[in-house]
Amino acid sequence: MAGAASKKEVSVAEKLDALFELQKIDSEIDRIRTIRGELPLEVQDLEDELSGLETRISKIQEEMKELDTEILDRKNATKDAETAISKYKEQQNNVRNNREFESLAKEIEFQELEIKLHDKKSKEAKVRIANKKELLDEATERLSFRQVDFKAKQAELNEIVGETQKEEDELIKRSEEAKKKIDERLVFAYNRLRGNAKNGLSVVPVDRDACGGCFNKIPPQRQLDIQSKKKVIVCEHCGRILVPTTIED
Ligand SMILES: [Zn+2]
After folding, report:
1. pTM of the model
2. What is the pLDDT of residues 153-172, one digit of tens each?
3. Ligand 1 midpoint to CA 123 (Å)
4. CA of 170 to the centre of ligand 1 (A)
5. Multiple choice CATH, 36-180, 3.40.50.10350, 1.10.287.1490, 3.40.50.880, 3.40.1280.10
6. Which among 200, 202, 199, 237 has a CA at the least distance from the CA of 218?
7. Where are the domains of the chain?
8. Beta-carbon contacts of residue 81 (< 8 Å; ≥ 6 apart)
9. For residues 237 and 199, what is the distance between their CA atoms, to the nearest angstrom?
10. CA dihedral (130, 134, 137, 140) positive or negative
11. What separation in Å is there between the alpha carbon of 242 and the centre of ligand 1?
């Protein structure tokens, strides 16, 4: 491959340095993503709660409207019944016999019962409206509180995303640059190790005579080999690539 041929000869020590540098960059990317991690979920939860409350409110309003319509319908029906009653009463003045009079009296009685029923049902509907109004007020109040929370969380998220996105983009660029210095086979191994490890570490320094990834002891001779950086040495236990102890200043 032309690309491989044009790559400069790199010593193992340089490769190891480049690998460790790459690890540090990628660990920083992991750190940023962890910070951001929970916030989008929290914002999503609030958004779900808001839409749930909105659905609830419009459902209550819909039910209240139906009850209003019912009351109005019963009011109109009562008027019709009253009109019918006065019509029957008038007819009672012009009956030819007792049977006709009684028949009209029954009609009047029926209409009066209807009026009573409409009145009872309307009163019940009014009680139900009052109860629903209480629920509506509760939900509306909760909604306005939650909207304040949501706006604050979303602003926080936007700020953090804005701040960290730039940093992350730069780190990703640096990570790509670092990978170019390392041959593909090693990058492949590095990525596979990173994918397998929970903490995303595939290149670790020796830490107090032990592997910095799995903390198993490393024999002294092996530690010397690691220090010399003459070849790529992996941990016998976890397979991570080992680099010399770093002295933090
Ligand atoms: Zn190990």
Report:
1. 0.57
2. 899 888 888 888 889 999 99
3. 78
4. 30
5. 1.10.287.1490
6. 237
7. 36-180, 189-243
8. 111, 112, 114, 115, 118
9. 16
10. negative
11. 8
